[in-house]
Amino acid sequence: MQNRVKTVKELVVNMGPQHPATHGVLRLILELEGEVIRKCTPYIGYLHRGVEKLSEDLTYVQSLPLTDRLDYLSSMVNNVGFCIAVEKLVGINVPERAKFIRTMMSEMARICSHLVWIATHALDIGAMTVFLYAMRDRESLLELFEMVTGARLTVSYPRVGGVRCDVDNEFLDKLYKFTEEFPGKVEEYETLIDRNRVWLKRTKGVGVITAEEAINWGLTGPTLRGSGVYYDVRKFFPYDAYDKVEFEVPVGKNGDIYDRYRCRMLEFRQSAKIIKQCIEKLPEGPILAENALRIRMPESPLKIDKKDIIFEIYTEDKQIQEFIQKFTEVYASVEAPRGELGFYIVCDSSSKPYRMRVRAPSFVHAGVLPKLCEGSLVADVIANIGSIDIVLGECDR
Amino acid sequence: METVYIILITTFKTLIYFGILMLHVAYATYAERKVIGHIQLRLGPMLVGPHGLLQPIADVVKLIFKEDIIPTKVDKAIFRIAPLISLTAALSTFAVIPVNKNWVISDINVGLLYVIGIAGIGTYGIIFSGWSSNSKYAFLGSLRSAAQMISYEVALGLSLVGVILMAESFNLTEIVNKQGEYWYGMFLFPQIIGYFVFVVAMLAETNRLPFDLPEAETELVAGYFVEYSGIRFSLFYLAEYLAMFCMSALATICFWGGWTIPPVLLKALPALGLIPGIVWFLLKVYFHIFLFFWLRGTLPRYRYDQLMAIGWKVLIPLALFNILVTSIFKYYL
């Protein structure tokens, strides 16, 4: 009998961009053999809004609201990152109070973002209850954001040289109460999923990234720390008030989905701890640097022509004027909930950035997806996407 | 004349059963949303009628009048027939399920076999729908379903062998009567392993969490019924809920003593005997239905290979062990 050659026909599945579990508009082309993924090709760009290019046509201050739209789940951190880059560029010293407020707000944003992560990650694996619990707690934080900034999602609150407005005691009381209650809420999620055999089976030993691979891929944030690499911008290059508060950086061991999950769960507690310290240590004083950049707007925008509405940055500080005269470049990064978020700006001494480039953690993390998915099963793809926690807004920019 | 009489009576019984069943299914969806609502700290339906009680009716009206979209490249005949197969199979199982003493449409001797056999036919509906949809997600969903059903049907069948050995009958009424002969009035205690296997397999058979892989909305969008809309979509849901009721009824009959109360309990509290059997039956059924809802609010979803491993490596050996133990006891006692 002749040996028959079996031909295996691969099934090519388009996962996304409208798939419920692709966290935005990620598109994955999966080549399947049964349920096993032989090849995975991620496609991005469905959310591209040209933020980097747009900002070249806008002044620094005008670019600030654009950064909100990058990682819309933690817009506060993006704002802070951008402001720090511009402050570094023009050499502005931020007042202490503003630094503490920013730190506080960044950590609030981290909790908010991680809450959406745990919600969607759990939902991807099929646990819907966690989703609603996390959304409930996020709501209270969004209300606090609204109290101070007037906005819930895209806050545009920090300013170059400080923050837009001061926080009042009512806000601080409410936030303090939140930090007291929040660890209990985290325990609630853990009760639902951490001791759940199904959850453990789905996450332990799945999607492993070794420490070496994680560094080679350029991963940052909890995704890197899950693999056991101790790196956190807040500790290594402290900005704002991070050098004045005490906190630990949780590190994983095995680099699997479970370790990344554990890292983020521990970060919840650390963030609450940081917020608490910020409230306790919050100094009195101004919230905006004296020589901060100010926006000079026409006195009555209604009376003048459209072409005359010009936003301009000016400063009276001679030193800064000289500094700005030079054609210079700057890179500043912050620890966003997803990892190291960097802003690289080339300045040609005009009021607009000559070039701006964002080092978005989600973009880097999306690159590791084929490595994680190939050889695993369809169900693991969504667990992996959830575990590296990407937001396509900042991935596409 | 007698044949006509039997046909008329059976038709009448069937219609009553059908009506009551449909009402139960409609309100099971309501109950599910309420139970899950409480677990997840939300209200559930509240707007239509007092406490949203008319919501199931509104849902039915909406689904009937919703546009029925059939994609261009589907296999139209099979696409249309698939939900009907699922529904018919799910409905047919109730023909032999006794809900009270002598309250059954057809008291056949192979009742248990009939239920398992007919319930298996429902898989055809799922496979047909997945295949005819001409969609990869639907296809994957139906393939998963086929594998899942075959694996868990074996475990389900084997888990009931212990009950059959103890009752020495396939007749569901007989099984219930036999349980009444024991002082504890239920096969639940001697057949606890069988019951465990049955409950797990029942979740898998009805595609409920943590085994809802054929639909797995976050992986396969909606799985086998992704292309269905309107009334056809609701027929699948109807079949799923009917299957839930069927499996709960089977668990009640085979392990919980059906409509009877344990004799020991009746001796202690004779007043309990005044409560009609149907109430006990429904209470036991709804306990299992609640179990379905509760698990949905608590558990994440298994992965496909893990599901298979549980079916073949845990449940089937357990069920076989149960059969062995039951046989030994039966032989020596």
From TrEMBL, chain A:
<keyword id="KW-0812">Transmembrane</keyword>
<protein>
    <recommendedName>
        <fullName>NADH-quinone oxidoreductase subunit D</fullName>
        <ecNumber>7.1.1.-</ecNumber>
    </recommendedName>
</protein>
<dbReference type="GO" id="GO:0051287">
    <property type="term" value="F:NAD binding"/>
</dbReference>
<dbReference type="GO" id="GO:0050136">
    <property type="term" value="F:NADH dehydrogenase (quinone) (non-electrogenic) activity"/>
</dbReference>
<comment type="similarity">
    <text>Belongs to the complex I 49 kDa subunit family.</text>
</comment>
<keyword id="KW-0472">Membrane</keyword>
<keyword id="KW-0830">Ubiquinone</keyword>
<comment type="function">
    <text>NDH-1 shuttles electrons from NADH, via FMN and iron-sulfur (Fe-S) centers, to quinones in the respiratory chain. The immediate electron acceptor for the enzyme in this species is believed to be ubiquinone. Couples the redox reaction to proton translocation (for every two electrons transferred, four hydrogen ions are translocated across the cytoplasmic membrane), and thus conserves the redox energy in a proton gradient.</text>
</comment>
<dbReference type="GO" id="GO:0005886">
    <property type="term" value="C:plasma membrane"/>
</dbReference>
<keyword id="KW-0520">NAD</keyword>
<comment type="subunit">
    <text>NDH-1 is composed of 14 different subunits. Subunits NuoB, C, D, E, F, and G constitute the peripheral sector of the complex.</text>
</comment>
<dbReference type="InterPro" id="IPR001135">
    <property type="entry name" value="NADH_Q_OxRdtase_suD"/>
</dbReference>
<dbReference type="InterPro" id="IPR022885">
    <property type="entry name" value="NDH1_su_D/H"/>
</dbReference>
<keyword id="KW-0874">Quinone</keyword>
<dbReference type="GO" id="GO:0048038">
    <property type="term" value="F:quinone binding"/>
</dbReference>
<keyword id="KW-1133">Transmembrane helix</keyword>
<keyword id="KW-0813">Transport</keyword>
<dbReference type="Pfam" id="PF00346">
    <property type="entry name" value="Complex1_49kDa"/>
</dbReference>
<keyword id="KW-1003">Cell membrane</keyword>
<dbReference type="InterPro" id="IPR029014">
    <property type="entry name" value="NiFe-Hase_large"/>
</dbReference>
<keyword id="KW-1278">Translocase</keyword>
<feature type="domain" description="NADH-quinone oxidoreductase subunit D">
    <location>
        <begin position="124"/>
        <end position="397"/>
    </location>
</feature>
From TrEMBL, chain B:
<keyword id="KW-1133">Transmembrane helix</keyword>
<dbReference type="InterPro" id="IPR001694">
    <property type="entry name" value="NADH_UbQ_OxRdtase_su1/FPO"/>
</dbReference>
<comment type="subunit">
    <text>NDH-1 is composed of 14 different subunits. Subunits NuoA, H, J, K, L, M, N constitute the membrane sector of the complex.</text>
</comment>
<feature type="transmembrane region" description="Helical">
    <location>
        <begin position="152"/>
        <end position="170"/>
    </location>
</feature>
<keyword id="KW-0874">Quinone</keyword>
<comment type="similarity">
    <text>Belongs to the complex I subunit 1 family.</text>
</comment>
<dbReference type="GO" id="GO:0009060">
    <property type="term" value="P:aerobic respiration"/>
</dbReference>
<feature type="transmembrane region" description="Helical">
    <location>
        <begin position="111"/>
        <end position="131"/>
    </location>
</feature>
<feature type="transmembrane region" description="Helical">
    <location>
        <begin position="6"/>
        <end position="30"/>
    </location>
</feature>
<keyword id="KW-1003">Cell membrane</keyword>
<feature type="transmembrane region" description="Helical">
    <location>
        <begin position="182"/>
        <end position="204"/>
    </location>
</feature>
<feature type="transmembrane region" description="Helical">
    <location>
        <begin position="235"/>
        <end position="259"/>
    </location>
</feature>
<dbReference type="Pfam" id="PF00146">
    <property type="entry name" value="NADHdh"/>
</dbReference>
<dbReference type="GO" id="GO:0048038">
    <property type="term" value="F:quinone binding"/>
</dbReference>
<protein>
    <recommendedName>
        <fullName>NADH-quinone oxidoreductase subunit H</fullName>
        <ecNumber>7.1.1.-</ecNumber>
    </recommendedName>
</protein>
<keyword id="KW-0812">Transmembrane</keyword>
<keyword id="KW-0830">Ubiquinone</keyword>
<feature type="transmembrane region" description="Helical">
    <location>
        <begin position="271"/>
        <end position="295"/>
    </location>
</feature>
<dbReference type="GO" id="GO:0003954">
    <property type="term" value="F:NADH dehydrogenase activity"/>
</dbReference>
<feature type="transmembrane region" description="Helical">
    <location>
        <begin position="307"/>
        <end position="329"/>
    </location>
</feature>
<dbReference type="GO" id="GO:0016655">
    <property type="term" value="F:oxidoreductase activity, acting on NAD(P)H, quinone or similar compound as acceptor"/>
</dbReference>
<keyword id="KW-0560">Oxidoreductase</keyword>
